Amino acid sequence: MNADDVVRVRYAPGVVGETRRVVHVAIRRPDGACVALCDLVIAAAEAELLDEIAGMPCLVCVRELALGFGGAPAELDAEAAR
Ligand SMILES: [Zn+2]
Fold this sequence. Notes:
Bound molecules: zinc ion
Strand order of the largest sheet: 4-3-2-1-5
Number of domains: 1
Structural class: alpha+beta
Order of helices and strands: EEEEEHH
Radius of gyration: 12 Å
Largest sheet: 5 strands, antiparallel
Shape: globular
Strand content: 15-25%
């Protein structure tokens, strides 16, 4: 895993209601899907990648970041071990 694979992502406009468009911290898979620290998977076609800090953060992702990825999904642990 390298730093470029870590992205800020939310659902694109119109995919879900506005209240669910919180910004997640995620790892980008080779297929373009984003796997967030909170275990949410957003398909590439439904994802809006953000270049800057914007929107309401996902509180679960923020918590996982604060805990140092300790509770990250197993898939992310496997990535980190490479
Ligand atoms: Zn999240």
